[in-house]
What does this fold into?
Amino acid sequence: MKYLLMMHLPPGAREYDIFDWPPEALQAHMAHLDAINRDLAAAGELVDIEALTPPSQARLVRAGRGGAPVTDGPFAESKEFLAGFWIIDVDAPERAHAIAARASAAPGRDGKPLDMAIEVRQVMEGPAARGNR
It folds into this structure.
């Protein structure tokens, strides 16, 4: 089963204020996430991982007249925002939850776990995808 694990930065987080952290705090945070990524890759569970640009660079796009894109944004003021995601392929939802809990505990600026929200959503599969498993 594939799952999308979405890392939401907490309310009140400035746009990637992580880059303003003391170097040792940033290194500890990144080392925690890198260890998760290495373990997932070694277990064959990592499908993809991506970091996202901040909300100030985000745009909502809708089809306008004649299908032309109509954009809205940027969104610098956000209650919380999606910082990145993993796509994993695991045998059970409990495994996806365990990985999310580990990611949630990444150390913050003060070295304490951030306890950030990691949204876990199963990737839907259509009949053709199920037949290929």
The chain has one domain: 2-131. The radius of gyration is 17 Å. DSSP finds three helices and six strands in the chain.
